[in-house]
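Project standup — Tuesday

K.O.: blocked on the structure for the chain from last sprint. Re-posting the sequence here as requested.
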Amino acid sequence: MTQQQKERIRVLVVDGEPVAERIAETLASEYGMDTTVATSGADGLAKLKDGGIDCVLCGDELPDRDGVDLLQAVQSEHEKVGFVLLAGRGEKTGASEAIRADETDYILSLEVVDDGRYGRLAERIRAVVRQKDRASRLKRQKERLEDFTSVVSHDLRNPLNVAQSSVELMEVEGAHIDRLDRSLLRMEQIIEDIVTLIRKGEPVEEPSPVDLGREAKRAWAHAENEATFDIEGTQRQIVADPERVTELLESLFDNAVEHAGDESEDVVTVTVGFCPDGFYVADDGPGVPEADREQVFEPGYSTGHHSAGLGLSIVREIAMAHGWDLRVTDSDAGGARFEITGVEFRDEDP
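H.V.: unblocked you, prediction finished:
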């Protein structure tokens, strides 16, 4: 199989009406998809068992069942397969309730096909497949990291606790014991950071409206520094996990202050603002060299003296958990500007 064939979306069109053949032919000839037609729910499930299907496109009324029944069967037995339900002939209320069980599945009015607007249909199929692929990758990542989280939080923490208890029982005083105590505290902080890094990358399952300005002020209140803080533009709500947004902002704030340098005579200014499809955190510090902008998000990368280099990795994991894109560039003041894009807004841009 060629690389191009691997990248083609494989669609199973399930409908007992003649329109199914027309839909399949159009998606294949005009939008580069590999299509297969099934004329009933049973036929569709049989073809799904053979594998190789990315998305099911189904009418809401089939000869042997309705589309909602098939949707539920696919969700239960083929979780990696996307589903687009063409509602229009049957009852939409039941379809809407079924769709809520899986946000990667969509209802699309049959009128779109009747009017020949297949481009919109193709876009919806691609969106469903992308979302399913992303959910599958995140699930695999979560499974791989669960064992690692257990090792970090238990197997390493236990001997660390023993060492800390031993320090408390020691009667020796002086620089050596103080240095040992500081090292153990630092190890404990690194363990906490690693566990946070892993858990914050888990997919966001129940996002809610978040007032970004309010969360930014809350995050800034937790920071222990002498920097100044500003919010630009009209405040808007984003759809996200509030706790993780606060942690993302805290990590970016800490990064800006830490990398301003201990010897800097000027107090760094950190600004939170909005860009067309997201938001940014910018500062007027030394910035990030262009050559380092890819590796700056890797675990362990740091130019600070007191950092384990996990702060920006946590930022990246939180962004990925939301399906956001993250990049660093230059701010207007010559410092660093971290842009988080692909964000869903609850309100309209004023």
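K.O.: great, moving the ticket to review. The chain has twelve helices and twelve strands. The chain has two domains: 7-135, 204-350.
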